[in-house]
Write a structure and sequence with these properties.
Elements: H1 3-24, H2 28-39, H3 42-46, H4 48-66, H5 68-76, H6 78-99, H7 105-131, H8 134-137, H9 139-159, E1 180-182, E2 185-190, H10 198-218, H11 222-240, H12 245-263, H13 267-290, H14 295-302, H15 314-331, H16 359-387, H17 393-409, H18 418-434
Antiparallel strand pairs: 1-2
Helix pairs in contact: 1-4, 1-7, 1-9, 4-7, 6-7, 6-16, 7-18, 9-11, 10-11, 10-12, 10-17, 12-13, 12-17, 15-16, 16-17, 17-18
């Protein structure tokens, strides 16, 4: 085989691995728990996507070594350089913390995985898309197709299936709870579908609702518009029953930005739209205030009421966790090391987990103000590049949803969720690599 033929074969293999990751990830929690319940080895099954990613990354590295022009483009891109610097900082702070006994080996490994895997997938899809357009040409199927199954199961979970149906496939105390409630009340079961929880499902649906809203405006056929609009409404029903307040807020922000991108060149329509949004927020806030003593409103919007069964409200827990996280950043301005905060910190035996309920604070706790600054700069550069390509549907979806998800990150560790992180950053690599920064028509 010639060098060109070998490179093309490697590209096809990488494309297949990326497609497998993107299609299967919305069912990751469900499939891994079922496989573990059937065959055992829960932790090993959970790493299937990282194994595929590792293989894809090795093949991408080989492709870069074989393609001088692509290697030069990659090496000269400041975004790739910053990701490399951030990765080096994550590894260095984690290793120092491990040598000092501040984190365990398991916490370090888990922290590195959670902090860097989605950036690695971004790089893989970026390199692949520079040479092959398969992911870009099929992004609608890859993004929306699996989501339709997630939405359908979520509807069944809410209206047809027993609330604890997932216990029959292995959900339980050793894996993931088969159901979640508001304030430990059975009357308020939260939909989680095939995800690892209601909040991760809500964050994922922010991207999907934004995508469906875009498809409604871009499809020309009348019945196509009706079909996508109906799907969007059904998705909003599932989103509502997640009772994820951060996801509700993020969805409103994301769709609002999507609308603004569509009308930003029409001055009077822009002003009218802003007035409508302001009036809606005022009306919503006024209604919520007027009904603040209603039990249903208290449970749905505040996740507690005067009959609460919890010793402390989730709102107080969020506030206290954030304060503790900010104090950690002040006391350790260079960070406590990768694995010292966030979900990975639960593996530090003999030490309390440091869960700030804020992804940005988590990065600050681990890598200090330098790491947090690098992470924010990377996000800003990605947002700017998507903005410069906002004529394209995929870029517009990603830009709008990035801002919404960033709001969720202020209230939770959103980017540590497998499905959301891989899918958003994977498609971001596709959008940024595929399109030039100019106006045009790509749909």
């Amino acid at each position: 085989m010639t060098t060109t033929e070998v490179r093309q074969l490697l590209l096809k293999i990488v494309a297949g691995l990326c497609i497998a990751i993107l299609v299967l990830l919305p069912f990751h929690a469900f499939l891994t728990i079922w496989a573990a319940d059937t065959f055992g080895h829960y932790t090993a099954w959970r790493l299937w996507k990282e194994v595929l990613l590792a293989v894809a990354a090795i093949l991408v590295w080989i492709i870069l070594l074989m393609d001088k022009s692509l290697r030069q483009i990659f090496a000269s891109d400041w975004l790739m350089r910053l990701i490399g610097i951030y990765a080096a900082l994550v590894l260095a702070t984690g290793y120092i913390a491990y040598l000092a006994g501040a984190v365990t080996r398991t916490a370090l490994a888990d922290g590195i995985l959670l902090d860097l895997r989605f950036f690695l997938f971004f790089v893989v899809t970026w390199v692949l898309t520079k040479k092959d357009s398969v992911l870009y040409m099929n992004w609608r199927k890859l993004l929306v197709g699996p989501a339709l199954v997630v939405i359908a199961f979520g509807l069944l979970q809410r209206f047809a299936l027993p609330y604890d149906v997932l216990k029959h496939v292995g959900y339980g105390p050793n894996t993931i709870d088969p159901y979640e409630t508001i304030d430990q009340k059975q009357a308020y079961i939260r939909v989680q579908s095939t995800m690892r929880g209601a909040n991760p499902l809500g964050a994922y649906l922010v991207v999907i609702v934004t995508a469906l809203a875009t498809l409604v405006t871009r499809v020309k056929a009348r019945w196509g518009k009706i079909a996508w609009a109906a799907t969007g409404l059904v998705t909003l029903v599932v989103l509502f029953f997640t009772y994820s307040r951060s996801a509700w807020l993020a969805t409103m922000i994301s769709v609002g930005i999507l609308i603004a991108l569509g009308i930003r060149h029409r001055k009077y329509l822009w002003r009218f739209g802003m007035l409508v949004v302001a009036a809606g927020l005022i009306a919503f806030g006024g209604t919520l205030f007027a009904l603040r003593n209603n039990d249903h409103v208290q449970n749905i919007f505040f996740h507690t009421d005067e009959h609460s069964r919890s010793s402390s409200s989730s709102n107080y827990g969020h506030s206290q966790a954030l304060k503790d996280g900010l104090n950690d950043m002040v006391n350790q301005p260079f960070g406590g090391g990768t694995g010292s905060a966030g979900p990975a910190s639960t593996h530090n035996t003999g030490k309390p987990a440091r869960i700030a309920e804020n992804y940005f604070v988590q990065i600050g706790q681990e890598t200090g103000f330098i790491g947090l600054g690098l992470f924010l700069v990377i996000n800003v550069i990605v947002a700017v590049r998507l903005w410069r390509r906002e004529y394209d549907s995929l870029s517009r979806i990603l830009l709008s949803s990035l801002i919404g998800i960033s709001v969720i990150c202020l209230l939770s560790h959103a980017w540590t969720d497998d499905t959301l992180a891989y899918i958003w950053w994977g498609f971001a690599g596709v959008a940024i690599a595929r399109l030039k920064e100019r106006r045009g028509t790509t749909d």
